[in-house]
Structure formats: C-alpha cells, structure tokens
Amino acid sequence: EPEVTQTPSHQVTQMGQEVILRCVPISNHLYFYWYRQILGQKVEFLVSFYNNEISEKSEIFDDQFSVERPDGSNFTLKIRSTKLEDSAMYFCASSTDRVGTEAFFGQGTRLTVV
Amino acid sequence: AQRVTQPEKLLSVFKGAPVELKCNYSYSGSPELFWYVQYSRQRLQLLLRHISRESIKGFTADLNKGETSFHLKKPFAQEEDSAMYYCALAHNAGNMLTFGGGTRLMVKP
Questions:
Q1: How far is B102 from A74, CA to CA, in rounded Å?
Q2: Are B51 and A41 an interchain contact pair (Cβ–Cβ within 8 Å)?
Q3: Is A28 on the interface with B (CB under 8 A)?
Q4: N or C, fewer C-beta in 10 Å, chain A?
Q5: Which pLDDT does position B92 carry in this prediction?
C-alpha cells in the first residue's frame, strides 16, 4: 500500500541553523500539507500546497518557513533560522483532493532544536 | 474561527465495555468532521468521517449539529482499540484540518 514517507525520522539542530524536512507524498496525490505537534499539545496545521503554490497557511507559518516541491516527487519544509520553540514532531500529509477527502500522513520527523 | 475540543485526555475501560470518546466543535459554517487514530508506533490514519456514515472496526460517530458534537462510540471495546484518537474538523472553503487535543484510549484485559 502506498505511504507518505518522511526523512529524517529525527533531526537535532542548533538554534539559528536552517533545517529542511523532506517528504515523499503518495504519487497520484495532488494536495500536500505540513502539520506540527509540539510535545503535549495539539496537532496544528502549518500549510497546504496545491498546483505548485501555497493554497492556505496558518499564522504559525511565518517568514522563517517555506515549502517547495523541487522535483515533482519530494515536498520539503524549510525552517530558515530555527528557534527552541520550533522543537516538535512535523507531519507531512497528502490527499487526492481537498481536505474533505482522506489525508494520508507520514510517520513524522521529530525536530529537536538545542 | 473553528475549534475542536476533546474533554478527556485519557479514557480507560475494560475489554467488552462500551466506549464513548467525546468531541465538540465550534464552527459557524457547515463542518466536515473526522476521527483519526494513531496506534502505538504507527502513523496517524483516518478512522471515519461523518459524510460516509459508516462503521469502521465497530466504531460509529454521529454528527449532532444541535449539540455541535461528533462523539465516537463502540459498544464493546477490544484491547487492540488502545490508541490515541483525534477528532478533526475541515471547513468547506478551506484546505486544512483543525484537530482536537486527542484522547488516549486504554482498553484493559
């Protein structure tokens, strides 16, 4: 069964460094998403991406965040200058249609900023 | 703004007992509601959605617009139902899910 794949599973970075979290969505899916979950808190929406552009973003997704689909298969989340509060589990998801259809989630990347 | 509330962080029941995981929402439009489940060491996956009106793994959920609730129910819990359950809302115009805080269900033998 096709799955959304995320790499790495765990990333440790120093405050102020740039990180890129990578995702390979399911191949025939058209909508892509990033969510995050800070330890002990809710899963929070960051951004959705469709037709090579951001379709919606939350207030969390400020100028230090960016997304890209560089080669038609990967979907990346870049955090330009990490802060301690960026430490969280980051989930990628994809769907065939807008969010009313099933979103398939990756296993997550745990980002630890030290 | 939309909001999803799951009042119980932890629900512990014995095998064979009925289960009800509560979910309340606030949203001014016509919502689409979902239950997602995360079993130990596995990814978040869709359990069911209100528009399908289906029963998955014995679980059902009915959207009650008057009470703004979408509680998840199962008449007889099984040990394999132990997991984290998240209620989520999607709004028609948007392309995002708003999640509740999650309820950990523990089914004891």
A1: 29
A2: no
A3: no
A4: N
A5: 61
Q: What does the pLDDT average to over A6-33? A: 96
Cα B40–Cα B41–Cα B47 angle in degrees, nearest 5: 60
Q: Which residues pair with B72 in a beta bridge?
A: B21, B61
| Structure tokens that stand for B29 in this block | 């439009």
Query: With contact defined as beta carbons under 8 Å apart, do A60 and A43 qualify?
Result: no
How does pLDDT run across B65-98, given as a tens digit for each residue? 899 999 999 999 999 999 999 999 987 666 789 9
Whole-angstrom Cα distance, residue A42 to residue B2? 14
Cis ω for the linkage preceding A8 (within 30 of 0): yes
Report the SS3 class of residue B52. Answer: helix
Q: pLDDT for A38-94, tens place per residue?
A: 999 999 999 999 999 999 999 999 999 999 998 878 999 999 999 999 999 999 999
Alpha carbons B45 and B36: distance in angstroms, whole number: 5
Which chain B residues have any C-beta within 8 angstroms of a chain A C-beta? Answer: 32, 42-46, 49, 51, 86, 90, 92, 94-102
